[in-house]
Structures are given as structure tokens and as C-alpha cells.
Amino acid sequence: MQSAKTVYEWKAAAAHLTILNQAFIAGRYVDAASGRHFDCVSPVDGRLLTQVAECDAEDIDRAVRAARAAFEDRRWCGQAPAARKRVLARFAELIDQHREELALLETLDMGKPISDSLTIDVRSSANVIRWYGEAIDKVYDELAPTADNAIAMITREPLGVVGVVVPWNFPLMMAAWKLGPALATGNSVVLKPAEQSPLTAIRVAELAVEAGLPEGVLNVVPGFGPTAGKALGLHLDVDALAFTGSTAVGKLFQQYSGQSNLKRVGLECGGKSPHIILADCPDLNTAADAAAAAIFFNQGEMCTAGSRLLVEVPIRGALVDKLSARASDWQPGDPLDPATRMGALVDQRQMQQVLHFIDSGKQQGASLRVGGKRARVETGGCYVEPTVFDGVDTTMRIAREEIFGPVLSVIEIKDLEEAVRIANDTEYGLAAAVWTRDINKAHKAAQRLRAGMVYVNCYDADDITVPFGGFKQSGIGRDKSLHALEKYTELKTTWVRLG
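Below the sequence we write its predicted C-alpha cells.
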């Protein structure tokens, strides 16, 4: 669904947009203690949007102390479930009311198409907050089946102070995935957005307080990973850390936990997801559409991106031809144009990394079928063409490493057995898919694929009611669904001996 505004209207709105750039601690906007700032540059055209407060360990400590004070005096966790539910419902309503402002911030900050920001990211973020608000008074505690001389109550209690570190590819939506269950269960939160895309997180903090969230319950501290992120991971008064991002950084947070207070760490990390299309695929055109969207949507900056396309021999040529033709529908365009399907990569560094992987694929002998170059150079933005490599060997870098860009590797397979073996030959295990009209093959593949999410005759199907997360080095724990509540609560047993 496209925006009702025209590209000209979006550009006019961008020219008059107010951009907040401070940290949000204890219910108010403040500068970094050091007074330092960092440049926030738009990948749309390379222009400076603002300078954002560059927070470090001192600011993290201020935010954690504010969050701890809010938790200890029970200004949030002590409220009745119905009261907390009303606040989160109002928070979601305010996100909806400010959807165009938030969508514009998201697009200018990280380059995705405005239609996606508006109808996917912002809308989904409001729905997630609303859904977890509704869950607050619908999840019950337990009584153990003890003998009749005792009552054993099993209750879930909030952890306390939760550190949240989110990535730059879905800045608002990933924050909502953490904030929804963390706030619903009564925790206080210190959120560090990615330095590449901090603007929506800074803005929604104010909306949360306007909705009725008490001061200090949600704090937003922008800054860099090695300073602000590390300080949050090492802080002795942070009870849990919820992270989405690269596997390498996820491992750092586990180390920080061991070096500090053994805080609980939930991780949603990288992926190199296999997208298997067998010769008995029920509809090759639909599969080609799905394969293109699986790698080109959000500029390929997706942890679940179907970046390895495993195709059975009889249909490989036809499918690659269809994919090459579909690439024309995904050519990068102006992110502020509602008709654009693929926008800019998040920054110059990411663009250069993607181009480096493309060079690697060519040097290692893969056949470049389409794309492979920088696009829209004259704009000053960070654009790369949708790229399809055929004849990819499983030892090539483009087949093994997470590229996080619009680069597809087509790998030929002879049957399902080989497909599953190649699919599982990776350190990751986030998502996988198989296309077949044989239900027996579909079930067999789903059972054997080592991935947290397996799609059959579709890709990247999504709903808040189902858990999101991976196996192996793709992470620990789950976002979304009621299962996410487990990450933000402790189990307590209260044993009552009866007379």
C-alpha cells in the first residue's frame, strides 16, 4: 500500500520537519554529559539532518539510575494491570496519530521507502505496543498441584531494569518488539538506538510520557556501541539486556554479562537464510515474486533475507530468468516517492561493504546475471542495484557471509536431501523456506531445517502471535508472541504451608 501523499508533499513535509536530537532521561530531553554530538547524515541524499547527543558511560549511568528509581518506587510496576494496559493503548494511539512524522523520520534517517515506513514499520510498531498492552490482564499465573496441606503459587515478576539495544534496519519496529513486552511486564527500560538511525526512538520517548508512562520508566540514550552500548552491557544495575543486531556484537553482550553481574541476555542476531525452491514448486511465478521480495525488500537489510536461493536443477534456468526480469521492478528510487519499492542503504560504510561483497562474488567466479553497481550516484545517497549471482559455489563468501544488502546467490541443487544439507551448512539458523506441492517433502524439510522459522510455499510470513528468533548463532530467546514475555520476567515460587 502506497502513501496518499505525493513525493512533492513528502519533500515539503521533510523541509519543515522538527528533528529532536537529545537523550531522553528521567522524563526530559537532555544533552550528553560531555556535550559531544555526532552527525546524523541521511542516506537519501547525503545531507546532514542534525547532530545527535553522543552519550557515553556517564549518560548510561544517569539513565540506569533513573530507571532503577522508577522501578524501586513501583510507579509503573505497582500500577494495576488495567491501568498499565490503558497507558500502552494510549501510547499505541499516539504512534498512530504521529505516523506521518515518524515515517518521515525513519525514511530520512535510514533510507527505506516512505510507503514501507508508513504502512509497515510505523503501523506495525503501534500494533505491537497495543497487542502487548492487551495481553497485560490476560496472562495468568499458576498454582502448583501440591498436597492439600500447602499452596504453591508460581508468579512472574518483572526483572527490573532492562537495557535494550536495537539495530538500524527497522529502528522503530525493533524497539517496539522489545518495549511492548518489557513495559507490559512492568520493567523500566534504557533504550540505546543504533547510531545510524536514532531519530524515531528519541521522538517516541516523549510520546510514551504523553501517554501516561511515568518519568524514568523509558529512557533513550543515543551513542556508539563501543561506548554507550558497552557501558549498558557492563552496568551492574541492569538486570537484562535485549539485543537485535549482528552476531559479532551479540557475542560481546554475552561477554559483558559474564564480566559484570550475569545479567540475562536475549539475542536476535544474524542470518544467511536458505530459500529452497524444488522442481515441483506449485507456482514458479509466485515463487519468483517471493524470492525477489525476500532479498530486495528493505534493500536486503534484513536478518531474515532469503539470500541463498537453492534451486533444483530442472527449474534453475527458468527461475533465474524470472528473477532477473523482476529486478527491474526493484530498482532504487527516491525514498520519498510513494511508488519506490527499494530505497537507500543506511550509510556509506554499508554501501561500500555491499559493493565489496559484489566484487568478491565476481572475483570468485560467480556469474553476475543482473545489477552489481552503485545507483543514483548523482543524488549523493547510498544506493545499490538489485543484484543476482548465478552459479554460486557454497564455498564463496557471498554464499556464506551475511551481506545485508540486495545481493542474491543462486545455488543449484539436485534434490531435497542436498538442499537440506547445504541449507544447514551455516553458523546461522534464523529463517528458511521450501517450495513444493508435496506435503510430505514440506514436512520433512521443516523438521530437518535448523532454523527458528520455516516458511512453506511463502517467505517471511509474519504475525505478532508467532515467535520470532533463531537457532545456533542467530540468537537466544524469542521476540513477538506471548513467549516474549518470558524474556522480561522472573519466575517466583511462593510456598504457603497450611495448618
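The chain has 15 helices and 22 strands.
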